[in-house]
Structure formats: C-alpha cells, structure tokens
Amino acid sequence: MSESLSAYGLTNVPDRSASHVLEMGHGLESCRQLGLQSPRQHEVGFYSDDRSLLDGYTRFVGTVLKSGNAAIVVATELHRQKLLTRLQAYGLDMSAAIEQGRYIALDDAEAIATFMVNDLPDPAQFSKSQAI
Asked: Which end of the chain is more exposed for a tag (fewer CB within 10 A), N or C?
C-alpha cells in the first residue's frame, strides 16, 4: 500500500472478502425473489503489481460482461489495451460490448481531471462528472 494511504489505517483491515461475497449473494437472491433489479455493485482493488491488477480486472469485468451487464473501466492507456486483449482472449466479443455501450473504457487522467479544481477533488464537479 502506498505510504500516502498508511495514515488512514487501511493496512490492518481484516480480509472480509468471503463475508462480502455472502452478503452480496444474499442481497442479490433477495432482490430476485422480490422481482427487483439486481443491486448495483462497485468494486475497488489494491494490487501489488500490474499482473495482479490485470488478472483481477479480467476476472471482474469478464464476469460482468458475460452476465450481460455493463462495465466502466478507468485506467491508463496501457492497462486499457492489455485488458481489452485479455477480455478478448477470455472469449468475449468486445467489439459488440463496446458497440452496445456495455463496455466503456476511460482514460484515468482525463476522468479525474473532470472533477479536480485547484488540484483538489471538487464535490460539485464530481457530481456533474458522474453523468457519463
């Protein structure tokens, strides 16, 4: 983890991934039983190297797209290129996903610039930028 994040006490967070999956699975099943839309899900991951990052992105985004849902990826150009290649190798028709608007890949610097004011995140600009 980056030194800049160490002040937030994130280094000693227990691994809750198994319980998170159970909670999400239960919530999803409850929604299906009630005939409601699936809950929206946002993920964040911290990776020690590029290979781990791309493995995680490929699994997550690949699963999302294979289920017929949409994914928005905010990453560097190199990561977007590598991810696209991996998703195609994963057996996905990425041209169709892009054409259908189910796969949107944004440049990280450009996306972040839309809500920064004087080198700080601006809440009002951030709210406006979410209308992608």
From this structure: C
Q: What are phi and psi of 27, to 5 degrees?
A: -65, -40
Candidates 128, 109, 112, 111; CA nearest to 120 is 112
CA–CA distance, 75 with 61 (Å, rounded to integer): 13
**What are the E-state strand segments in the chain?**
71-75, 103-107, 116-117, 120-121
| Average pLDDT over every residue of 27-39 | 48
| Helix, strand, coil tally for the chain in percent (to 5) | 55, 10, 35
- Written as one letter, the residue type at 120 is L
User: The whole model's pTM is what?
Assistant: 0.62
